[in-house]
Amino acid sequence: MTRLLVTGAGGMLGQDLLAVLAPRVDLKVTAATRADLDITDAAAVRAAVAGHDLVINSAAWTDVDGAETHEEVATAVNGHGVTHLAAACAETGARLIQVSTDYVFSGDADRPYPEDAPTAPVNAYGRSKLVGEQSVTRLLPDAGYIVRTAWLYGAHGPNFVATMLRLAQQREHLDVVDDQHGQPTWSYALATRLVALADAALAGRATPGFYHGTCTGQTTWYGLARAAFALNGLDPDRIRPTTSDRFPRPAPRPAYSVLGHSRWTAAGLPAMPDWHATLTASFASSAPPWKVT
């Protein structure tokens, strides 16, 4: 029986991965939360990876602003922790799927970033994730899969969609930036795609390297907030557009985080659905905790 290890299993994406994998009787899944496995501990990682055929790493430091003042700590997890996982997989012959980010790009493009676009992160979080990417490509050139995602929302963790709908109960109007472009991505939809990639990798159908795991289409944070309001029966005109300079943050954000998806076709897998259709589906699924009732 194929053995699969999911790290970061207690996070938003990790919990969705476990839900997608739950019906799979052909897989023996090991779920490792942060309490179970500290990926910055090389010896612990080596012991955890032993005996597994494939690892999906969803463990990460995700505090983008916090990384600006704690870059060494963020890099210890997002960079060196991934190095430990890649080295352990190289020792045992396991495959690794590493979840990365759009923040490895500069954000100054005017068309979707292809998977082989040059990287140039503009903040500490992006730099920390890039260290992890480089470790996977160096240590697992024939067994490493790097899936960049962006603008994640889901039922099991703090996220923009949940915040907007919570604030809707507290304020009449919300000012939301309309000059950052990206692809809102439901964590459950990404989980289904990661599992499909794992299947293709184990079957030898998926070429190692970079994949972009975001929904298709594009919008702004303003557009996403309006869509979330409309789908919950709230007046979208309560959302007012503004610019990023009105909301200064410790970490600069890329202005353009739209990713291309051409690598999926080569693996025999379709690109992820349109962001708005996926957002609609997310609200229809088993009463997510952010849903307005």
Automatic annotation (TrEMBL):
Cited function: Catalyzes the reduction of dTDP-6-deoxy-L-lyxo-4-hexulose to yield dTDP-L-rhamnose.
GO CC field: cytosol
EC number(s) recorded for this UniProt protein: 1.1.1.133
Pathway membership, UniProt: Carbohydrate biosynthesis; dTDP-L-rhamnose biosynthesis
One GO BP annotation of this record: dTDP-rhamnose biosynthetic process
The gene coding this protein: rfbD
Stored InterPro entries: dTDP_dehydrorham_reduct, NAD(P)-bd_dom_sf, RmlD-like-bd
GO molecular function: dTDP-4-dehydrorhamnose reductase activity
Residues spanning the membrane: none
Annotated ranges, domain RmlD-like substrate binding: 3-284
NADP as UniProt keyword: yes
CDD domains (alphabetical): dTDP_HR_like_SDR_e
Similarity comment: Belongs to the dTDP-4-dehydrorhamnose reductase family.
Metal-binding as UniProt keyword: no
Protein name: dTDP-4-dehydrorhamnose reductase
Alphabetized NCBIfam families for the sequence: rmlD
Coiled coil: none
Keywords tagged on the record: NADP, Oxidoreductase
